[in-house]
Amino acid sequence: MLRYHTHPVTAFAQNCSIVWDDQTKQAAVIDPGGDLPELLATIDRLGLKLEQIWLTHAHIDHAGGTGELARTRGLPIIGPHRGDQFWIDGLPQQSKMFGFPTAEPFTPTRWLEDGDTVTLGAHTLDVRHCPGHTPGHVVFHSPEMKRAFVGDVLFAGSIGRTDFPGGHHQTLIDSITQRLWPMGDDTVFIPGHGPESSFGEERLGNPYVRGT
């Protein structure tokens, strides 16, 4: 069985998710934006073996702790899509701009493309490239759990910002309607900020994508 736990990190309350194989305790962390001591304490408390870092995109609150975590624990960095290279290159500047601890530089071990998969123990998650918030944003989908880790593409009642460099509103809407909705109305998504919701609920009530 695949399980997950959401641990908010940074002053932006970014939903960092810990995902693990319940049998082997092999774990991946999605978007370790910061607060690494707290994050690692949670992983230890759950009795997990952290083996991978998965990134949805490279904004500072999602990727700020990635370089340090990868270096100190010897972990591979999986994702995002290479369209976010310029955001990775700019992490030190993002740190200063938003008052975060200086982010260590890193190079992803593996870039992700639409249609790729990632594996954790005996479980496989699908990767969808969902640009619009950032050019290289990806989403991790577990059909087994009926869960999707969507970063800042979609929120309960809202959508991701598109006014940052590389953002584009219509591209984001297309990503949501063409890449997320086919996962099914009953799929629950874990956004980068705020509470979980389902795609069905957002199709009914989200003012930005209602009726799409």
TrEMBL record:
Pfam families: Lactamase_B
Residue stretches making up the Metallo-beta-lactamase domain: 13-193
Domain of life: Bacteria
Gene3D superfamilies: Ribonuclease Z/Hydroxyacylglutathione hydrolase-like
Names of required cofactors: Zn(2+)
Keyword line: Hydrolase, Metal-binding, Zinc
UniProt-recorded Gene Ontology molecular function terms: hydrolase activity; metal ion binding
UniProt-annotated stretches for the region Disordered: 193-212
The keyword Zinc is assigned to this record: yes
PANTHER family: HYDROXYACYLGLUTATHIONE HYDROLASE GLOC
Name by which UniProt lists this protein: Beta-lactamase domain-containing protein
